[in-house]
Recover the amino acids of this structure.
């Protein structure tokens, strides 16, 4: 069997097996027949085991086979006389890295969550959404067209929002899930627009297609792709949703905001790095945004009082450094950084419920001298206190976004809706008109 | 000959059924079952006709509208609360279906003109007396007059009038008032049956071709039209998130999605046009599904508020799952039929105007947010209701068929578009192969 064909089969396995396990759990659940927990964990665990094997086989093939960069069309999704949408995939080192990382970490999280979420009300929901998320990440990893990447991107966003609202009987997680989804949708506009411009200007939406665009159009597409990556990677000014996303269960926080989802943005930029290299202005924009985010997240993360939020901001700071590496053109280093950071952060977040226990043990082992007290920075005392206060308030970024963007929008919408209801009242003669707005 | 015989059998059968229901059967449950069975037979007959090539199963003609409309109406009657399936509503909806059939089978003829006017009459008749009917009267009259005049006149002016009729009938902002009123005041399942199949799109695509050519030839006019439709899709989608009641929010979401479909159906570019047509079928079924789940919930709880969470997930997980599938299909999420169609739509003529393109994509993105917003508000949060009856078998059956259709077509959209015709690009891609390594891989 040719290597390309074998890679295709393995890639298809890695893409479809998690999706299949989602359907196996979801369909009976939706109709009121919940599978026993043990069967669910075995089913999902088995699916991830198969996926891990497929990914490892892809790794081995890419290492030993003479071809290190293979593209293939898994399926022609839509074919028209002058246009086609293909499920075209690529197997190369970035793809293999993210695929393996996704399979291994999702498998570990699945195994961990089987007991962590035992008898929890949302147990089945979690095991429906985890493989769905893995499918989305696999699609992002292997996509050779931004169309397929966008499909995976949407799966990741949807499963993320639904898992933030995992504790569905509380108000705050529901609100925060919607907030995260709103940020994703804002940034998705840029990604979808970039895809359309690539199709229109370059003939297809492969990551390398941007190089065929003119200078101005290429720069616009590069900037759109940078903007698209901001949402999922919680880059400034979209950092505010991340601490709120920690409302979800710890395993999902680990896999989404420590390990994989948060790296989807940098991975997109690694994929389109040839386009970024061709446009220094885009790289400068990326570097500035990443630098601001690194400063912001570092200061905020060090002043937070709960471990998950602190780790969340630490993740953002690292992702910002990865962005700086991409802006500098060090994509291989960025890929290594993604892999190392994902593994470390997953461990830290999974360990976070035991942080007090760990801390006490650490203090006891070191004889009570482990705490670093009174560390001095180069800031003056007065300035240091001010920075500290602002960092606790997260530099008021959320307040500014709310006051300058969200509030005026809602005022306008309420005015339009009120006028619309008055017109409805006039046309229909209805006695009750609902003027009560939020 | 076979075409005539089959069409006549279907139409006469439905006519007899209508008459029998209107004057004979008084028991709502039996009436609902009989009507559902009638539509099921019609849908099967039309599907067979499509498979045998009598009616084209592809989007190249409007005939796909018939099975989709039949499927939507089958779902409506399968899941409609018994109290809503009155003689008046049943006969009006069957009459409306027959008008859809006439519009598709005999386009650009005097039959189409009569069918269009009659369709507006049946729509008016199906609405309950009161604000919904009063509010709809001027809009439906305008749609009927503009459509009839346009079809009779023909040419650029006639087609512009047809476009106006389609805009009013679909409820494109700012002509959306009657649609939102129908969702607020009429039974939800009736409102959905009147609006979701979007018969005006059939009128647009079956009307004489070339009538709207002036729109494609005049660049500034085309830009203005695309911008106007983008704004018209954006505003109601944005209004969804500030609504207090689910029925009104769903009406606004329907209006926004309908605007996207109308824009696709007038797109002179082949890709965008096919995208619009696939979106028409996909959203027709998806909006029907959303409306029916809402209808089932409202039949149990009354009006549902969305300015606060309702927490229905634990009580009716089946409705939650189905609502999510329909909502995602309606807004073009991956894995559903809407995804491919939105992709096709924006790659058509819209791509020419990329400054407007972002507004249009923003509108579609807002629709997605609005749909998930409604899902979260209805099914998540602390529960405020103590008990709620489980979904009925017929509700599960009808809604599951719709959901399955949407997912299958989403995974294989070529089923709607027609047999694949490999292009040079696709053929080259099909061979796969290797390419030189890129800078980032070193």
């Amino acid at each position: 069997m040719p290597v390309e064909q074998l890679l295709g089969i393995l890639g298809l396995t890695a893409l479809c097996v998690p999706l299949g396990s989602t359907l196996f759990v979801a369909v009976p659940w939706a109709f009121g027949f919940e599978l026993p927990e043990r069967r669910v964990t075995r089913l999902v665990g088995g699916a991830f085991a198969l996926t891990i094997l497929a990914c490892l086989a892809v790794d081995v093939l890419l290492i030993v086979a003479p071809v290190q960069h293979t593209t293939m069309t898994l399926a022609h999704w839509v074919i028209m006389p002058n246009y086609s949408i293909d499920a075209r995939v690529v197997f190369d080192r970035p793809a293999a890295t993210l695929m393996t990382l996704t399979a291994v970490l999702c498998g570990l999280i699945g195994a961990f969550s089987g007991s962590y979420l035992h008898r929890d009300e949302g147990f089945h929901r979690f095991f429906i959404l985890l493989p769905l998320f893995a499918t989305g990440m696999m699609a992002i990893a292997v996509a050779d067209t931004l169309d397929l990447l966008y499909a995976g991107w949407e799966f990741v966003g949807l499963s993320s929002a639904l898992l933030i609202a995992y504790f569905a009987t509380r108000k705050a997680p529901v609100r925060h899930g919607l907030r995260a989804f709103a940020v994703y949708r804002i940034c998705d506009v840029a990604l979808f627009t970039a895809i359309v411009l690539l199709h229109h200007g370059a003939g297809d939406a492969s990551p390398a297609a941007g190089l065929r665009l003119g200078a101005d159009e290429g720069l616009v597409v590069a900037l759109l792709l940078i903007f698209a990556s901001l949402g999922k990677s919680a880059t400034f000014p979209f950092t505010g949703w991340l601490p709120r996303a920690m409302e979800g269960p710890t395993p999902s926080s680990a896999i989404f905001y420590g390990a994989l989802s948060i790296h989807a943005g940098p991975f997109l930029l690694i994929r389109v790095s040839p386009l970024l290299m061709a446009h220094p202005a885009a790289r400068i924009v990326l570097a500035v945004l990443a630098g601001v985010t690194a400063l912001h997240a570092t200061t905020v993360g060090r002043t937070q009082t709960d471990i998950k939020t602190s780790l969340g901001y630490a993740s953002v700071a690292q992702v910002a450094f990865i962005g700086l590496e991409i802006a500098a053109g060090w994509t291989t280093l960025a890929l290594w950084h993604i892999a190392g950071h994902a593994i470390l952060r997953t461990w830290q977040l999974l360990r976070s419920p035991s942080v007090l226990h760990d801390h006490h043990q650490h203090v006891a082992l070191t004889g009570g001298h482990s705490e670093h007290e009174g560390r001095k920075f180069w800031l003056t005392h007065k300035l240091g206190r001010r920075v500290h206060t602002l960092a606790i308030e997260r530099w008021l970024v959320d307040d500014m976004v709310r006051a300058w963007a969200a509030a005026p929008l809602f005022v306008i919408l309420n005015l339009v809706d009120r006028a619309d209801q008055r017109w409805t009242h006039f046309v229909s003669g209805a006695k009750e008109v609902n003027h009560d707005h939020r | 000959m076979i075409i005539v015989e089959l069409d006549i059998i279907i139409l006469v059968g439905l006519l007899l059924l209508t008459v029998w229901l209107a004057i004979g059967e008084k028991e709502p449950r039996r009436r609902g079952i009989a009507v559902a069975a009638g539509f099921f037979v019609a849908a099967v007959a039309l599907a067979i006709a499509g498979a045998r090539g009598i009616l084209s199963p592809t989007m190249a003609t409007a005939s796909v509208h018939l099975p989709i409309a039949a499927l939507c109406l089958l779902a409506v009657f399968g899941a409609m609360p018994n109290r809503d399936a009155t003689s008046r509503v049943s006969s009006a909806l069957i009459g409306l279906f027959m008008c859809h059939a006439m519009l598709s089978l005999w386009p650009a003829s005097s039959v189409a003109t009569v069918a269009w006017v009659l369709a507006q009459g049946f729509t008016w008749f199906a609405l309950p007396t009161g604000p919904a009917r009063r509010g709809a009267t001027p809009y439906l009259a305008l749609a009927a007059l503009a459509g009839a005049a346009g079809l009779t006149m023909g040419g650029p002016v006639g087609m512009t009038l047809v476009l106006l009729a389609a805009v009013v009938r679909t409820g494109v902002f700012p002509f959306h008032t009657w649609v939102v009123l129908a969702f607020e005041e009429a039974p939800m399942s009736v409102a959905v049956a009147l609006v979701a199949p979007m018969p005006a799109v059939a009128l647009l695509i079956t009307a004489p071709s070339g009538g709207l050519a002036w729109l494609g030839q005049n660049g500034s006019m085309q830009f203005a039209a695309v911008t106007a439709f983008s704004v018209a899709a954006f505003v109601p989608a944005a209004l969804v998130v500030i609504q207090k009641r689910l029925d009104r929010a769903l009406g606004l979401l329907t209006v926004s999605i309908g605007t996207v479909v109308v824009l696709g159906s007038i797109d002179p570019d082949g890709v965008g046009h096919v995208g619009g047509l696939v979106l028409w079928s996909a959203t027709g079924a998806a909006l029907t599904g959303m409306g029916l789940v809402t209808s089932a919930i409202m039949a149990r709880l009354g009006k549902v508020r969305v300015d606060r969470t309702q927490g229905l997930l634990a009580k009716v997980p089946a409705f939650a799952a189905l609502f999510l599938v329909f909502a995602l299909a309606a807004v073009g999420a991956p894995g559903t039929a809407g995804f491919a169609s939105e992709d096709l739509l924006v790659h058509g003529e819209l791509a020419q105007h990329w400054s407007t393109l972002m507004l249009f994509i923003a509108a579609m993105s807002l629709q997605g947010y609005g749909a998930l917003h409604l899902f979260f508000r209805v099914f998540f949060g602390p529960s405020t209701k103590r008990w709620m009856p489980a979904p009925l078998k017929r509700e599960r059956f009808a809604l599951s068929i719709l959901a399955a259709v949407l997912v299958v077509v989403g995974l294989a959209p070529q089923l709607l578009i027609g047999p694949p015709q490999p292009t040079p690009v696709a053929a080259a891609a099909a061979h796969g192969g290797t390419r030189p390594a890129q800078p980032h891989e070193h």
Summary: Residues 307 and 352 of chain A are 7 Å apart (CA to CA). Confidence is low (pLDDT under 50) at residues 433-438 of chain A.
